[in-house]
Amino acid sequence: MKKCRVGKKRVTKGFRDVFIERRSFRTLITSAIEVYNRETNGALMGRSAVREIHGKRTGVVSIKEAYPFQTEKRTPSEVVHGNKAAFKRVLRAVESLKTEIIGGYHSHPYPYGFVGLSEGDVVSVKEDIEAMEKVGQERVKKGWIELLLSIKRNDYRRPQKSEWYICDYVKKLRVRMRTKKKTGYDILISAYWVYPKEKYGEKPIKQMTFGVKEVAVFVPWILE
């Protein structure tokens, strides 16, 4: 694995940045590649933690596990819960296992126009928060972490070595991976807090106003 750095990663003021643990990182990357050129999506499990970043102990949100939903309806520009009953079973299973969902993730296959959450993405987050509230998953009401994987397939004229590398940007991470001699994938990972700007209970969640704040993404390899 090779790595590079473009600019210095900045810690976000007022919001916890995201630290993706090794196992969940692998799940995120492989699930985005598996369904290309359609969108992947899934749930994120984790907790608040402290990691040493730039020589300083810093509060982050640690992504411990990523679970890709298996019954989704996928297209190149959209992914929705294709089986509502199956989605609810996942939420109840997670609750029974005493595990907290802290957010979700999905991909935008190329051509994705811009890198960021769309209005439809925020609507989907609000729908998931509403569904999770009904099974007792209350933590996400304070704020939802959404990881976005903007992915593009690259086809090479000449054979390439099977390898991968990470490039660290001010907020985002870029992962380039060659899976076959003439095929590879370019994945840009960005992270966002989706948070309520109104009090719960005054109106239905789907009618509430939510803000979106991009935060920095860290992985172990960059800090080593």
Give a summary of the structure in a few sentences.
The chain has 224 residues and is α/β, with parallel strands linked by helices. 20% of the residues lie in helices and 42% in strands.
Shape: globular
Q: For the report, how would you describe the main beta sheet?
A: 11 strands, mixed
Specify the oligomeric state. Answer: single chain
Give the total of beta strands.
13
Characterise the protein shown here:
With 224 residues, the chain is of the alpha/beta class. The protein has one domain (2-223): Cytidine Deaminase, domain 2 (3-Layer(aba) Sandwich), CATH 3.40.140.10. Helix content is 20%, strand content 42%. It contains four helices and 13 strands. It has helices at 22-34, 84-96, 119-133, 220-223, and strands at 2-5, 17-20, 41-53, 56-68, 73-74, 79-80, 101-109, 144-155, 164-168, 173-180, 183-196, 210-215, 217-218. The strands form two sheets. Strands 1, 2, 3, 4, 7, 8, 9, 10, 11, 12 and 13 form an eleven-stranded mixed β-sheet that branches. A two-stranded antiparallel ribbon has the order 5-6. The model has no long low-confidence stretch (mean pLDDT 91).
